[in-house]
Amino acid sequence: MEATSMHDISISRFKKIFADSPCIGMGDDFFIMDVNISESHQPLAHPCRFDGFMVIYCISGHITLNVNLEEHELKSGMLFLNPPGNIVRVNELVDSVKTDLRYVCVMMSKDFVANLMLDVNKIFTKNLSFVDKPSIELDENQKNMLREHISLMAKVIQQETPFKMECIRSILSSLFYFMAGVWSERLQNGDGIEEKVSSRSRMLADQFLKLVSQYHTEYRNVGFYADKLCLTPKYLSRVIKSVTGRSAPEWIDAYVILEAKNLLKYSGLAIKEIVYRLNFPNQSVFYKFFKARTGMTPSEYRNS
To answer: How far apart are the C-alpha atoms of 4 and 51, rounded to whole Å?
Structure first.
């Protein structure tokens, strides 16, 4: 069963949410946006899953992002990199924070990135781990390099010149390798990575969480994800616990609860339709599952 939840978000929808922010790009596959948050605007206040790649560079102020149920602070001078499938929510912003907050956002569809001159799978699964470190602080040279890449892309977009798309893809390829180098250097220096956890374990945890993000509305048993990764359920559970501190079933249940809460609060769907979308056999099973993990029935949560 395939269901599109209301917190799935495309590039075109993201642009509509931030319609007042200056934006340049190439259709609905790639754009650069300079975001200032107005006092009346609370962006991405409920969980959403973006279906492409998102790069955020914080110019001033600070913001707290909840990524796959874990909080990460993004402050001035920090870079945030979000691959497809992550569930992201912006924690509530007070007006004083909104006034100071400014960041640049680069968004790319999966198809657009697939045509870049780089090995994206190698960058995102072999060299780097985004389970714990989706954001990183840049030094002055790295900030300058990032700004120069973004500025050059903006200038190319504004030009009427042959091979514009090829130019943008070349610059983006350079930007991805630059970011990969920054993260790799920090990880090699032990920034945020514990020695007792192997790179393979972190890679498996990354892959597991991506699969859970994709399939949690259909499959809640660890065996399904272990089969996808060609592992035994016991071994996968041990790896996930060692890397994240949570068991594999806890992660699966957390994603399902997050999805259920989002649908209850924002979709307007009848509970029986939510039960169907989340692939529960009946409302009774869903009610027991939800209450055991939240302390509330679905109806109580919806009305809270």
So the answer is: 12
Please state whether beta strands 52-60 and 23-26 pair in parallel, antiparallel, or not at all (unpaired). unpaired
Q: Is 186 left (phi over 0), alpha (psi -120 to 50) or beta?
A: alpha
Neighbours of 65 (CB within 10 A): 20
- What are the tens digits of pLDDT across the range 27-63? 888 989 988 765 445 667 777 777 788 899 999 888 8
CA distance 139 to 144: 9
> What distance in Å separates the CA atoms of residue 45 and residue 54, rounded to the nearest whole number?
17
Alpha-carbon gap, residue 3 to 46, rounded angstroms? 19
Q: Which residue has the tokens 């016991």?
A: 234
Mean pLDDT of 136-145: 92
CB of 40 closer than 8 Å to CB of 33: no
pLDDT value at position 6?
A: 40
**Of 128, 125, 127, the residue nearest 204 (C-alpha):** 125
